[in-house]
Design goal:
It contains 5 helices and no strands. The chain is mainly alpha-helical. It has one domain.
């Protein structure tokens, strides 16, 4: 399963990077350009200091990259236990967005919570649409099949 997870991430690496860069520009627009509040700084306890906007923008790039990579590995794992891993993955992702979206409002101000929810949508919507289309999943039988999550072959079949 580790080898197929690595293959899944490698097959979607360009898309993961593209969405991460989109997140970087989205976070920069929301915090640096529009001046929306950022969450509380996690390294300062018992304080109401906010995350510096430029640092938050760069942190968003890396957070998006690792979150989408983890989501891609989860999608690959779901391909071993589900006949429709994309649908299950999208359902779990929406559930996570709803739960974490509510939790985001505890990260400082209401404005910071709104900004985080917008940022999560900037990451989630392209991920939920694009990642299942480009990822190569390990499949049901434990060996790597060259099919994407929509069960469309990525390799042309040569007829005998």
């Amino acid at each position: 399963m580790i080898a197929s997870s690595i293959l899944a991430v490698r097959s979607s690496l360009r898309t993961i990077f593209l969405i991460s860069v989109l997140t970087f520009f989205g976070a920069g627009t929301l915090t640096v350009v529009l001046g929306l509040d950022t969450p509380w700084a996690p390294w300062i306890t018992d304080s109401e200091a906010f995350f510096p906007p430029v640092a938050f923008t760069f942190a968003s790039l890396f957070a998006a990259f690792f979150a989408i990579t983890g989501g891609t590995v989860l999608l690959n794992i779901l391909s071993y236990i589900s006949y429709n891993p994309s649908q299950l993955w999208r359902l779990l992702s929406v559930g996570f967005l709803v739960l974490y979206g509510g939790y985001s409002f505890t990260s400082g101000t209401v404005e910071a919570g709104i900004m985080l929810n917008i940022l999560h949508l900037i990451v989630a919507v392209p991920s939920l649409i694009l990642i299942p289309k480009v990822v190569t999943l390990g499949g049901q039988i434990g060996e790597v099949n060259n099919t994407n999550s929509a069960n469309q072959s990525d390799i042309a079949v040569i007829a005998k």
